[in-house]
Amino acid sequence: MNPVSLLPFIVLIGAMFLMTRSAKKKQAAAAQMRNEMQPGTGVRTIGGMYATVKELHDDTVLLEIAPGVHAVYAKNAIGAVLDDAEYNRIVHGDDDDALDLDGAVVPDDASSLTGTDADEDTSDESKIDLDKKAGPDDSASDKKSEGKADGEADEK
Fold first, then answer.
1. Phi and psi for 82 in degrees, rounded to 5?
2. Do residues 45 and 87 touch, judged by C-beta distance below 8 A?
3. Fold of the 37-96 domain
């Protein structure tokens, strides 16, 4: 075989080796993070739920997801161990750098989006009439079918 034809194969093997090595490093880091958990630590599960660690077991962890509400999770379901400041900022809203909106009020209707209030313009001119109006062609056909009962068709 020509050494040039082996080059793509060698590159592929090298890339797979690097990807496998990187994945193993990530798994080891995640396992170490889970091993550093202690009761009272704030965590985020892989499903995005925030909770506090109550008890640790070999493969499971007891989480308090709300005051007095406990659930057992697999340790592998813990996505991140959070430091106290981050956990309190996310769960309790304790944030000194919180966004200050200076008393901005969000309206509960769409009137502010259109620039007019619903109560401002009550004239008949601004209202749209949704009733069907008889046109020149409709008046003759309405007179023909006036005497017929519902369900009877016009004969043509």
1. -100, 145
2. no
3. SH3 type barrels. (2.30.30)
